[in-house]
């Protein structure tokens, strides 16, 4: 339990550092090869999804599902950019698990079969 708390604190600290020091909005999209101009907001908004991105058996919090659903409606490529970002990786998120979150949230308009890096959205 303490380990999860420490991981979350580290993730938030890395996220804050990233948001304060990175002024170039093209940083995140470069991680997914063509994600558009996403900026830093997607990674920051998906903090509630961290536990579900680490463990395929974890229940996805409703707030995470809401954030993912909203991001898929407005900027679906930015979800991929956030999943593949160095911030997510440093926080311990597993991209292969993270791409399953839209399905685990029962989001009907998810980009089924689309590639997110080397991962395919189920």
Mean pLDDT across all amino acids? 78
The residue ranges in which pLDDT falls below 50 over 5 or more consecutive positions are 17-36
What is the 3D form?
Answer: globular
Task: Work out the helicity level.
Answer: 55-70%
Q: State the end-to-end distance.
A: 30 Å
Helices, by number, come to: 9
Number of strands: 2
Largest sheet: 2 strands, antiparallel
* Largest sheet, spatial ordering of strands: 1-2
Global structural class? mainly alpha
Strand fraction equals: under 5%
Radius of gyration: 13 Å
Reading the helices and strands in chain order gives: HHHHHHHHHEE
Organism: Solanum bulbocastanum (Wild potato)
InterPro entries: Bifun_inhib/LTP/seed_sf, Bifunc_inhib/LTP/seed_store, DIR1-like
Protein name: Bifunctional inhibitor/plant lipid transfer protein/seed storage helical domain-containing protein
GO molecular function: fatty acid binding
Jot down its keywords.
122 residues; two-stranded antiparallel sheet; mainly alpha
What does this structure look like?
Strand 1 (115-116) and strand 2 (119-120) form a beta hairpin. The longest helix has 20 residues, at 2-21. It contains 9 helices and 2 strands, in the order αααααααααββ. The protein has 122 residues and is mostly helical. One of its GO terms (biological process) is systemic acquired resistance. Keywords: Membrane, Transmembrane, Transmembrane helix. GO terms for molecular function: fatty acid binding. It comes from Solanum bulbocastanum (Wild potato).
